[in-house]
Amino acid sequence: MTSSSAQLPLTNLYDSAPLFWLTALTSFLFMRSQLLATIAFASGLLALNTPAYAISLPKNDYPTEARADYIFACMQVNGQTRDSLIKCSCSIDTVASLIPYADYASARTILMMLNSTNRYRDMFRSYGPFKEKVTNLKHAQVEGELRCF
Q1: 0.70 exceeded by the pTM?
Q2: Which of 67, 68, 107, 71 is nearest to 88 (CA)?
Q3: Which of 2, 28, 41, 66 lies at a C-alpha separation of 20 to 30 Å from 126?
Q4: Do 72 and 42 share a structural domain?
């Protein structure tokens, strides 16, 4: 035997390379499709296990510091007792359910300006939208007192 007849010609190796890559690609795509099908199936099962309704929690846009300030001031007026703490906490929760924090903060700022002795005090007293914000805050506070005290 000659050494050239025992070796495969190089053209056969190059001819089989595209077939190898085609087989590898087909295998990869099949495994990928199986993985995607499994993920889709699992997602469907998870969707079936979730309840058909969502529980909506009350929006809590009031920072803790604002709630604490309100409760502290309320307790200064109503007494430093545990009962007062519970009632004042209920009151700020009522206020928070009625007006958003941005309006609450604006109204508090307006009230501070009205109670100050600076030259802009009259401007805050006479401007219509400012009066409306303060009125809305006072209504929410009265509602809190009616519900909680």
Answers
A1: no
A2: 71
A3: 66
A4: no
Question: What is the rounded distance in angstroms from the CA atom of residue 145 to the CA atom of residue 149?
Answer: 5
Burial of 97 (0-12, 13-18, 19+ CB in 10 A): middle
85 contacts 75 by C-beta, under 8 angstroms = yes
Residues 16 and 85 in one domain: no
Residue range 32-65, pLDDT digits in tens: 666 666 666 656 655 555 555 666 656 678 999 9
R_g of the chain, CA atoms, integer Å: 36
Distances (CA, A) of 45 to 34, 39, 40, 49: 17, 10, 9, 6
Strand ranges for 1-68 from DSSP E:
none
Domain range holding 32? Answer: 9-49
